[in-house]
Write a structure and sequence with these properties.
Blueprint lengths: L7 H8 L12 H17 L4 H7 L7 H10 L15 H31 L3 H12 L8 E2 H11 L3 H16 L8 E2 L12 H7 L15 H14 L9 E5 L19 H4 L6 E2 H6 L3 E2 L12 E5 L8 E4 L1 H9 L3 H14 L2
Antiparallel strand pairs: 1-2, 3-5, 3-7, 4-6, 6-7
Helix pairs in contact: 2-7, 2-8, 4-7, 5-6, 5-10, 5-14, 6-10, 6-14, 7-8, 8-9, 10-13, 13-14
Length: about 350
């Protein structure tokens, strides 16, 4: 799910750890008593009274959304960092590469047009599509507004979920059909699994039919994924990363990142400091495919060794950081990059 987005249920994990409020009674009666508060917040943010009169009476309390949320946000994250090789993320590449290539053949004209417009390669777009909704085969069947309103009412992360519920109400107010708003238990919607706030900022009407339909239009969904990445800093004509062999005797401590991460610390603390690909080349790093991208004097990259010293390492550009913005996990971003190379060699 996307920036800050941010997107999909997995993206909420890091946001869930802070800013909690006391948990309210979790029942349908209490939920109905909360809805006037949601109405006031939506009115203050510009949602029309007519839309609220039409939508709020239809919302139902979702005990299932609360139950899943409590399980999903209860985990830690302080244990040892596992290896990428042998992980579920790596295994998923094998299962999704074939369907991804099929989608590439099916959608190639549209994807090539999106690449010309936005600079994001088809393989990257399809890898995210595959990981977020299994190429559209499962996008979730929760009522988005009802689930978000329920999670806001539950109270532990009210500011987060209430703002997303208001964003979903804005979508209806701006003409998105009410029945379209379905998705995950945490509000991630459609083929790209966008949160409502992300939809409002970044969804694209690629097929020019007057509606950015991320649920049923693959053209709109693929362009929206690309637009998300561009907003997160994607640059055309450069790789997400380069697989490299680390020179013998490399002093990792001397090149560690001394900046304290303020977001996703366990992700970014594994990255070295930034240097140009040319500087890494002069240190003895060698691309495993035998070439460096052009303009290596200008392209900055950080070093990541996902399986530890002695195994394949990667020099990662700002395009990798754009993928991380979709889901702040090194395994996720590595999975996207490597799956993309299988879909679009």
């Amino acid at each position: 799910m996307p920036r800050n987005i941010i997107l999909a249920a997995a993206c909420f994990g890091s946001l869930f750890l802070a800013g909690s409020q006391p948990v309210l009674a979790q029942d349908a009666t209490g939920f109905q008593a909360y809805l006037p508060q949601l109405r006031a917040a939506a009115l203050a943010d510009g949602v029309s009274a007519q839309t609220l009169d039409r939508v709020l009476p239809t919302l139902e309390f979702s005990e299932t959304a609360i139950s899943i949320d409590q399980r999903a946000s209860g985990g830690g994250g302080s244990g040892p960092i596992p290896m990428f090789t042998g992980s579920d993320e790596q295994r998923a590449i094998v299962g999704k590469a074939g369907p991804g290539r099929d989608k590439y053949r099916q959608l190639q004209p549209q994807l090539d047009q999106i690449e010309r417009e936005l600079g994001v390669p088809p393989g990257i777009i399809l890898a995210i599509y595959g990981k977020e909704s299994n190429f559209g085969s499962y996008t979730g069947n929760f009522d988005t507004i009802g689930a978000l309103a329920t999670l806001a009412y539950e109270g532990r992360r009210r500011a987060l979920f209430e703002s997303e519920a208001v964003a979903a109400l804005k979508m209806v107010d701006r003409g998105v059909p009410r029945y379209k708003l379905t998705g995950s238990w945490a509000g991630a919607m459609g083929k790209p699994q966008f949160l409502p706030s992300v939809y409002l900022r970044l969804a694209v009407d690629e097929d020019r039919d007057g509606f950015a339909d991320i649920w049923d239009s693959e053209a709109d969904a693929m362009a929206s994924i690309a637009n998300y990445l561009v907003a997160a800093g994607w640059r055309r004509d450069r790789p997400w990363g380069v697989a490299v062999d680390v020179p013998s005797g490399f002093d990792r401590q001397a090149y560690r990142n001394k900046t304290v991460p303020t977001r996703c610390p366990r992700v970014f603390e594994r990255h070295s400091r930034w240097m140009t690909l040319a500087e890494w080349d002069r240190l003895g790093f060698r691309a495993q495919q035998g070439y460096w991208p052009q303009e290596k004097e200008q392209i900055l990259a950080t070093l990541l060794e996902p399986d530890g010293p002695g195994n394949t390492a990667y020099l990662l550009t700002q395009n990798y950081r754009a993928i991380l913005d979709y889901n702040c996990s090194n395994f996720y971003a590595m999975g996207v990059g490597l799956l993309a190379s299988q879909i679009q060699p």
